[in-house]
Specification:
This protein has helices spanning 2-11, 21-44, 50-87, 102-150, 158-186, 198-219, 246-263, 321-331; strands at residues 193-197, 230-236, 241-245, 269-276, 283-288, 335-339, 346-351. The protein is α+β, with helices and mostly antiparallel strands. Strand 4 (269-276) and strand 5 form a beta hairpin. The protein starts with a helix and ends in an 8-residue tail after the last strand.
Length: 359
């Protein structure tokens, strides 16, 4: 019943003067004609001269036209003022005179555009501030180490050089992530989709992560994954085949594993689990840790750039890893989300597979 009423209401819109400018103008013409006809009729049945009636008719028509025109164009004038304010950098203003006709639709679209521009401007400022902070920290640390060596405060021994290497690695990782994000924004990424066996592929990814952890154990580096966390791979069936861009998927898995390791407790375990989806070549991949988990309120924002949740004992990273993982998954037309888990954090990745070419 409600659907029928909505269809009737939508069909009547072209004749509704409150929702259609065309109908409002037609109504204006009709009212002007009726007023003129009424005044002429009064003149015929009275001693009033026709020219006097004509003058009153013109005045009445002009007044009605002025009222209707002012009401119709008020949102347009307000949009002009808001647009000028936005051109000057003020994105906080909105159009308040919202009608139900086409001008009202335009005003609503204008307000949404203003909100999007305000959000983009805010994100740009946050990006500049965060990038400046992230670059300044390792550069300042590296400069302090080198100044101490040059001034003779510290000797150029392996421990001092190891500290310099840590900051250089951190700086290099950040620059690499920023380059990935620049490719994300420019859209200059083309997927190289192909079929591959999941078990040997993920095994190689985890082996690379394990080598980094062993290096952390040897050098004592805190910028690399912790060495006390165990990695476990679960692929079923063992001959599972997926259809994706292996390089981009490597970014996803590596970033998720790195994030899970950072949040794991001492002696914790990180599990990478892979299963086939319903379509050919589709893949369901989840990475689980045994850490404190992600609060429900942060589960949407956790994939935003530079968003870093609180996790005691960690360095927080750059806040770019999960953003890059979401970008790579979106390129595949897949989905990434924080899934329910009885313990720790579980991030679920779903890739559609198939043989569609993505850009």
């Amino acid at each position: 019943m409600r659907g029928w009423r909505r269809r009737v209401w939508a069909a009547l819109r072209p004749w509704d003067p409150f929702r259609s400018i065309k109908a409002a103008l037609q109504l204006l013409v009709i009212v002007s004609v009726l007023i003129t006809t009424l005044l002429v009729t009064v003149a015929i049945h009275s001693a009033t001269e026709v020219r006097v009636i004509t003058i009153f008719s013109i005045i009445a028509s002009l007044l009605i036209t002025q009222i209707v025109a002012t009401n119709l164009t008020a949102p347009l004038r307000e949009m002009t003022l808001v647009a000028r304010a936005m051109a000057g950098g003020d994105y906080s203003r909105r159009v308040t005179r919202v009608r139900r006709d086409e001008v009202g639709d335009l005003a609503g679209t204008f307000n949404r555009m203003a909100a999007d521009l305000a959000a983009a401007d805010r994100h740009r400022k946050e990006l500049v501030a965060n990038v400046s902070h992230e670059l300044r920290t390792p550069i300042a640390a590296l400069r302090a180490v080198l100044e101490n060596v040059v001034d003779g405060v510290s000797a150029a021994d392996p421990e001092t050089m190891r500290l310099a290497l840590q900051q250089t690695e951190r700086l290099g990782k950040l620059v690499s992530q920023l380059l990935d994000l620049s490719r994300l924004d420019s859209g200059a990424v083309r997927l190289d989709l192909k079929r591959f066996e999941v078990w040997p592929y993920l095994s190689a990814v985890l082996k690379t992560a394990s080598l980094g952890m062993e290096s952390a154990k040897t050098t004592g580096s805190r910028s690399r994954p912790r060495a006390d966390v165990h990695l476990h791979l679960d692929v079923s069936p063992p001959e599972l085949v997926a259809y994706a861009d292996s390089e981009r998927l490597h970014q996803v898995v590596a970033n998720l594993v790195d994030n899970a390791v950072k949040h794991s407790p001492p002696g914790g375990r990180v599990t990478v689990r892979a299963r086939g989806g319903t379509a050919a070549g589709s893949l369901q991949l989840d990475v689980r840790d045994e850490g404190p988990g992600i609060p429900e309120a942060d589960r949407v924002r956790v994939f935003d750039r530079f968003h870093r949740g609180a996790h005691p004992g960690g360095d927080g990273g750059t806040g770019l890893g999960l953003a890059i993982a979401r970008w790579a998954v979106d390129l595949h037309g897949g989905r990434i989300e924080v899934a329910e888990s009885p313990r720790g954090c579980r991030i679920l990745v779903t890739l559609p597979g198939g043989s569609t070419t993505h850009h």
